[in-house]
Amino acid sequence: MSAERWKEDEALLESLRKGSPGAIDELLRQYQGKIFNLAMSILKNESDAEEAAQDVFMTVIRKADTFQGNSAFYSWMYRICVNTCLMRLRGKRRTETVSLEEFMPVFTDEGMHASPMDDWSKEVERNALNEELGRMIRMYTEELSEKYRVVFVLSDVEGLSNEETAKILGLTVPAVKSRLHRARLYLREQLSRYLREGKVG
Amino acid sequence: MNCKELSYMLADYFDGSMDPQLQEELDAHLALCEPCLVFTKTYQAVSDKARRLRRQIEYEIPLDVRDRLETFVRAAALKYPEKLDEYREQVQRERREMVAGLVKAAIACRLSPGTALLVKTHCSACPECKEYFDGLPKASDPGPGDPPDLIHSHMIRLLQSLPPGEEFFLA
């Protein structure tokens, strides 16, 4: 979180409170894409994500006046978004998610890697692969349960620090790290299998 | 350090929060163990790619959704000045209800484990809240009424630090 961004957010909040013209345009410009993306990555359904995004902006407008600024504005917004989405998921039948265990690395009794390892780290450097790889990462991420998905999306895709992610999700930093680690192990294994099968364009 | 232990430490390894001595051991292991080297490179490739392919991974907001959302938000914002008092009142009411719920759950011993721990930790550092919680009637009738402002504000902060979507009471 850079100091400039912090200042911009402060200014945005202030102009929202004053009802300054332009505040809403700025809010939308900066956040509607981010909020929709975050809602989609939790809800995985476009019309649900649209309704959730409306709720998020309504809550932000409603609470702008009472927001106490003990956290950064964007992390407050993300938190409202996660909260809104999890509320919507509650009571709904959850879609099937994978069990991570099957995708964790396997070790011998002596603690050595038990299966052969393909090095595809160079292969994925090819720019021609970007579209496909991005699609695959998104698809595999969707199979994770929200618990892991949200952490992976905020920390690895959005690039927030573990501390920022922890604050937004109300988790401890070690808890964020452990979820992030498992999500990465899962994706590593899924990508290995995918690339090994040679389905690459 | 064996391969299994190494695999547990990769998140720390890449965010630079590793103990220097352990990191030395890890690097020494990596220099000698081909499977771990490959495992580590591909592990790193996952988060590298996730960050670099952000555009491909993220969901782009469709134009029609964007339009509808803008219309909705602008309409809501236009009403902001006239609704400000109502919003303030709403937020106050929500907070009062949350605090009343917390107090009720505390009396009934139905706080969620996470909340109970938060309350306990807070009370050990805040004599005012400790006194308030210790003095809560064990029976819920008659109710204790709204707590004083200071305690109210502490409880709000406490509730706001709970993970999103988590209830503070047991079902």
Question: How would you describe this protein?
Answer:
- Chain A has 201 residues and is mainly α.
- Chain A folds into two domains: 3-89, Rna Polymerase Sigma Factor, Chain: A; 100-196, Arc Repressor Mutant, subunit A, CATH 1.10.10.
- Helix content of chain A is 65%, strand content 0%.
- Chain A is built from eight helices and no strands.
- Chain A has helices at 3-18, 23-43, 46-63, 73-89, 130-143, 146-157, 162-169, 173-196.
- In chain A, helix 1 (3-18) crosses helix 2, helix 3 crosses helix 4 and helix 5 (130-143) crosses helix 8 (173-196).
- Chain A is elongated and about 65 Å long.
- The model of chain A has no long low-confidence stretch (mean pLDDT 88).
- Helix content of chain B is 73%, strand content 0%.
- In chain B, helix 3 crosses helix 4 and helix 8 (113-125) packs across helix 9.
- Chain B has helices at 3-8, 10-15, 20-32, 34-52, 54-57, 63-78, 80-107, 113-125, 127-134, 149-160.
- Chain B is built from ten helices and no strands.
- Chain B is an all-alpha fold and 171 residues long.
- At the A-B interface, helix 2, helix 3, helix 4, helix 5 and helix 6 of A face helix 1, helix 2, helix 4, helix 5 and helix 6 of B.
